[in-house]
Design a protein that fits this description.
The complex is a heterotrimer of chains A (230), B (261) and C (342). Chain A is of the alpha/beta class and 230 residues long. Chain A contains 10 helices and 7 strands. Chain A folds into 2 domains: 60 residues, Rossmann fold (3-Layer(aba) Sandwich), CATH 3.40.50.1980; 123 residues, Rossmann fold (3-Layer(aba) Sandwich), CATH 3.40.50. In chain A, strand 1, helix 2 and strand 2 form a beta-alpha-beta unit. Chain A starts with 23 loop residues before the first helix and ends in a 7-residue tail after the last helix. The model of chain A has no long low-confidence stretch (mean pLDDT 81). Chain B has 261 residues and is of the alpha/beta class. Chain B has 9 helices and 12 strands. Chain B has a 6-stranded mixed beta sheet, sandwiched between helices. Chain B has a 4-stranded antiparallel beta sheet with strand order 2-1-4-5, covered by helices on one side. Chain C has 342 residues and is mainly alpha-helical. Chain C has one domain: ABC transporter involved in vitamin B12 uptake, BtuC, CATH 1.10.3470.10. Chain C contains 14 helices and no strands. The C terminus of chain C is likely disordered. Chains in contact: A-C, B-C. At the A-C interface, helix 6 and helix 7 of A face helix 3, helix 6 and helix 7 of C.
Chain lengths: 230, 261, 342
Amino acid sequence: MTNYCQITPGDKKEIIGSYQSIDIEKIILLKPDLILTTKEGDLAQLVIKLRRLNIPVFVFSESINFDDLKKDFRHLGILLGRQNRAEQLIKTADRKVSDLRQQVSALPKIKVLVELNTAPLIVAGPNTFIDEIITSAGGINIARDTLSRWPQYSVEQVVLKNPEVIMITGMDQKTKKALKAWEKFPQVNAVKNKKIHVIDSNQICQPSINNFLESLKTIIKLLHPDLKNE
Amino acid sequence: MLSINNLVCGYQQKEIIKGLSFTARPGESLGIIGPNGSGKTTLFRAISRIIPAWQGSITYQEKDIQVISHRDLARRIAVLPQFLNLSFPFLVRDFVALGRTPHLNRLTPLTKEDHNIIDSSMKQTDTFSFKDRRITELSGGELQRVLIAQALSQQPELLLLDEPMAHLDIGHQVEILDLLKKFNREKKLTLITVFHDLNLASEYCDRLVLLKDGQIYAQGTPAEVLTYQNIEAVYKTVVVVKENPITKKPHILLIPKDKWR
Amino acid sequence: MNKLLLFFILLGLLVLTFFISLAIGSGNVPWSDFWRILFNPDNTDPLSTIIWQIRFPRLIAALLIGAGLAAVGCAFQGILRNPLAEPYTLGISGGAALGGTVAIIFISKFNLPGWVTTIGLPLAALVGALLSLFLVYLIASRLYFSVTGLILGGVLLSFIFSSLVLLIMTLAQPDEVKSTLLWMAGNLSMVQPDLLKISSVFIIPGIIILFIFGRDLDVITLGDEKAQHLGIKIIQIRQFLFVISSLIVAFCVANAGMIAFVGLLIPHLMRILMGPKHQPLIWGSALAGGIFLMLADTVARTVLTRTSFGQGVELPVGVITGILGGIFFLAFLLRRKNNVIN
């Protein structure tokens, strides 16, 4: 666990560093059977070191879509000897996701902007987990034609592309400021129709099949409030 | 005009001027001489209020300089320090105009009178011809004249000069000193000048103050002060004092150590 | 060059730059619409929103910050008699940025009322700026205000501050890291009108005060002693001008992060055009700084956005000023190595 992880109170897991810096000595002392990590956060050097120490490391692919997530989960099942259970979970999740996708496929596409920071304005771009969820939920990420995955985005483009929904990730003070910043632009549909939502960044920014499913449900509810729940 | 009474001052813990008194009379040219470290520059700094008096006082026209505002003092006393920062390329005209600072408010533009004073200061110092050049491009002699023009445009009653001839060749030295002497005679501008060169001090001063270790060793006319006994005692060197055949002022001749008897 | 003529040229350029920058952006506004919107703002028209709600406040911010940084650059160079002095090279911007980073990261942790956030950022930036000013002053006074002492002290402080910023970043959340980095790099995206209004109340009078003290600055360039000989109370005036300058820098940084080189490049160019007298130089630099930063920000918000791969992507303006300013300054250094720089 790093101090960026969601930690359940009373959990006895050790924290071995932060998102950017990992305490390798602590890892060795903990004598893990297996280490799971992702490509994000640039941990390649650490992985090489750990493998040299004969500690098995599994690196998740840069999971940006549901298929990758399924693949990763299947690998994890094999590694932990719970292949059947994994397949079972994948199948259930897969079915649910397909159902949800089916439900929204006929509905009109909704233009969405997902905002990560206000000043400067940083949004979710293409090839991101968030973009995949938005698309699956029957939305179009208006920032998906940029070159950067997390671009600093032009406010003018937001006004011109006129999203119907704006989602702000994060909590507390920051989102309050973000909400206030949009008040200046009443002709943006999302502002006009009060469709600016704050979403929990823990769920939408941590890719896993379960988070994907839950996030998808949340986003669909936000994008299509009239849709009857299953 | 300016009188110094039992002055003691220095830097941090170190006492440099150890109790000295003298008076500069209106219209005279007073020279201050003494070996390195005898306190010439420190004395100057005290007179221009850069450093405070620890004991004693300095009075200007019967008033303690501590109670005169910096601005008022600057309207009466101009100073030409030994070192000046000249890295900004001001035009000569603008540079001379800075001498008007104590007479101006922050935003009031220069009046016609100010311009007249600036122009005449430049003409008197023969610097008007290059008023549109930059001070960073001037030769040593030209620069020294510009500095004097700046001091003149301050319209002081008293001008303090700290070795104004340093780094100049003898031609320029004489030129600058003649110029100063002219102002002294014609405008009754009182001069107090620190000299390194005793012969120049002798030629250009009415009176001299000889310093030794922060105290006055001798004062009086050049003939009274510049005796071989005084110089040998203060400068720890052997000299012969003769008379300049033209000016009748004392002239000091150096004797190298291997010729000492 | 005739100063009055230059004043009108600069003013003309300023107006021209303002309108051109108002007309250019990632969203294409046709000229015919532009003129219509300019004289008849219409809140329901998205093009009008783009021009009046997005570009206009942003240009005002660029103008204000550019002018402030350039004027402060002039003042620092005069006070310290050092042509390389600038809020950025002296570490003042770095200190302000450290204060700002602390504010951004920690204020968001607590549920405080909105006005606290608005005031907190510039306040923290000001504390940082004053702290670094104090330290630079301390270091420099130990080294007799020598050119090397000052710049070395400033650079070292900048290093320390940026390390402290990195330390805070290591403890922060990944999304905060990117946003703080982009803010620090000098950014005018999403100008906050409340903060801008407060800032203008400090920056504009600040520049005017520096202008009023222009003659004092001229005299101060001659050296502390000569300044006193000319009736200037050097210690009080220098401290006063330092505090005024730091105030301006703090508000510039609070609005837009660290924008490099404006305070160095602009006063130097203007000194070539106008000479070193500070009263004309400060207003000239303020105008030119405003023009420069408006142009730089226009480049920053359009250079990528019109390309097919970078639709809607903006750059931090500090990237543009850093690159342009750095190159200009290098060229300048190599060309005139014996004059102003010495």
